[in-house]
Amino acid sequence: MPPRFDLRRCAILAVVLVWLATPLTVRAATPAPSAPTGCPADVVTLETLTLDTILDTPEPSRADCFGGQELTFTAAGYAITNTWPGISLPPVLLHDWMLRADRHEDELIVSVPDTVALPDPSGTPWANRDTVGTSATWWLVTGHFDDAAAGDCRPDPDDVVDGIPVEMTPAEVRTFCRNRLVVDRLVWLPSVDPAGSPLAVKATPVAEGPPIEQGPSIEQAPRRSDADVGSAPILAIAVVVGLSILVFVIAAFASTRTRHSR
């Protein structure tokens, strides 16, 4: 006697198959997050990164573009005395330096914590001065954006500029601090000709402590095209429809076999 097919079981099987395929549809229909506006092109890698690249990246997007990964580049710079009205900064962000690039007219203000080792001023261009570095002093700079201390930045409602209170929201203050470059290491490059390009200079900083775990480099961040995002849900829906048709055919065949067996 041929086996009897239960139509109810086929219906249950159809529900199970559709349920299993539903996460595929949801995942495929969800577009990949877009890169922040103004991020460097995919061809930029950590090996070719320059201060120009950072300055060309809009300031509000720097933390999102570069993340917390370690960045190394050459720049001329020196320590400055600076204040940020309306913001209460944690110790790691208190001390500022001014860095400039080869071709860029803009300058980048960065944070250099007290823990960063600096050369003995004896015999340097800034010997017997109240600051460190000069506008013609070149450095190999290693640092990162999106420092964990950004979460400790707070608005300072007591700050007043020209008699007007400086009002900033917690979100604005945190965004400001996330997009600050925090320096991890500075290596003085005394052999660099101020009139020439420092980008060809290679220097290896002395290792200090265990290596910092790096996030994915810029070239490792895959980007899906609009065509990929658009075709994915179509494919998933086609799979679900195909499974539904297959189950319907099986159910119809089972129903016919059941009637014939009677």
Short description:
With about 260 residues, this protein is an alpha+beta fold. The protein is built from 5 helices and 9 strands.
Mean pLDDT: 73
Shape: elongated
Q: How do the helices and strands follow one another from N- to C-terminus? A: HHHEEEEEEEEHEH
Assembly classification? single chain
Structural class determined from secondary elements: alpha+beta
Which regions contain 5 or more consecutive residues with pLDDT less than 50? 24-33, 194-231
Largest sheet, spatial ordering of strands: 4-3-1-5-9
Number of helices: 5
Q: What kind of sheet is the major sheet?
A: 5 strands, antiparallel
Radius of gyration: 30 Å
Number of domains: 2
> What share of residues are in beta strands?
15-25%
Helix amount: 25-40%
How many runs of DSSP E, i.e. beta strands?
Answer: 9
**CA-to-CA gap between the ends?**
11 Å
